[in-house]
Specification:
Blueprint (H helix, E strand, L loop, with lengths): L1 H27 L6 H12 L7 H17 L1 H17 L5 H30 L4 H17 L14 H13 L7 H11 L4 H28 L4 H32 L3 H17 L1
Helix pairs in contact: 1-2, 1-10, 2-6, 3-9, 3-10, 4-5, 5-7, 5-9, 6-11, 7-8, 8-9, 9-10
Organism: Halalkalibacter nanhaiisediminis
InterPro entries: UppP (IPR003824)
Enzyme class: hydrolase
Length: about 280
């Protein structure tokens, strides 16, 4: 009886740990503090060892659904306008077509880097101290653009600028470099308005997340512990979705109020504490 109770308590603790991991990842995914880095930190403190990137990709998919829900009207307009211009050459939809093409182009650098260096990134770079340093870099970048407002809207961004933002997203494959932070910093550094930078950043997350999810399916299906991890993964997914939804809503308000310095200071504090304590 004692063994049964012990096993039950261990299972409950494991479920709670995965739920916490999902919530933590979901909350940190939209904001510029590196969800991948925080996920590694939390796994370390909770004593949960998850090999590879399949779990991270899985909970990122939950964040993707949250982003799709929040931006559903913008995405509907973009997609319909894209195909209206593509198929009918409707001049009123040309800006949507152009924006869509820019999203595709900006996605390419991260796809190439991920395909070439996925194993190295998942292994060599997912080290606590490496992430602490890259988190400090994220904080420094956010600090530099903290007061920028920008003047370029969706129609005024150029192909060269889009490629630079795409390269910033590729750099953010390094754990500890925030994806949203890197793309927003690059965009605002190029003079983009905050709203344009934010929309482009999260639209850019969509193809990356979908592609990573497709590539991770085989890893998940081949996992010998898949049956045992089904419920923990599902809990993490639900937690990530809910946390991502409210976190993105909150971050959108933060962007409007121009208070990115709070995230810069947070990155400085966490990165320094990790270097000192661990």
């Amino acid at each position: 009886m004692e063994n049964v109770e012990l096993e039950l308590s261990q299972e409950i603790i494991l479920l709670l740990k995965y739920l916490l991991l999902g919530i933590f990842q979901g909350f940190t995914e939209p904001i510029p503090v590196s969800s991948s880095g925080h996920l590694v930190f939390l796994q370390h403190f909770l004593g949960v060892e998850i090999e590879g990137l399949s779990f991270e990709v899985f909970v990122n998919f939950a964040s993707l659904f949250a982003i799709l829900v929040i931006y559903r009207h913008d995405l509907k307009q973009l997609i319909s306008g894209f195909f209206r211009y593509l198929l009918k050459k409707d001049e009123d939809s040309k800006s949507d077509y152009r924006f869509g093409i820019f999203i595709i182009i900006a996605t390419i650098p991260a796809v190439v880097i991920a395909l070439l260096f996925e194993d190295w990134i998942a292994g060599e770079l997912k080290q606590i101290h490496v992430i602490a340093v890259t988190l400090l870099i994220t904080g420094a970048a956010l600090f530099l653009i903290r007061n920028l407002k920008g003047w370029k809207n969706d129609h005024e961004i150029s192909l060269k600028e889009v490629i630079i933002v795409g390269l910033a997203q590729a750099i953010a494959l390094i754990p500890g470099i925030s994806r949203s932070g890197a793309t927003i910093v690059a965009a605002m550094g190029l003079g983009w308005k905050q709203e344009t930078a934010l929309r482009f950043s999260f639209f850019l997350f969509i193809p990356i997340s979908v592609g990573a999810g497709i590539l991770a399916v085989s890893d998940l299906l081949q996992d010998p512990n898949l049956a045992d991890l089904a419920v923990p993964y599902l809990l993490a997914f639900v937690g990530s979705f809910i946390a991502s939804y409210f976190s993105l809503k909150w971050f959108m308000n933060i962007m409007r109020s121009g208070k990115l310095i709070y995230f810069a200071l947070y990155c400085f504090v966490v990165g320094t504490l990790v270097l000192v304590i661990l």
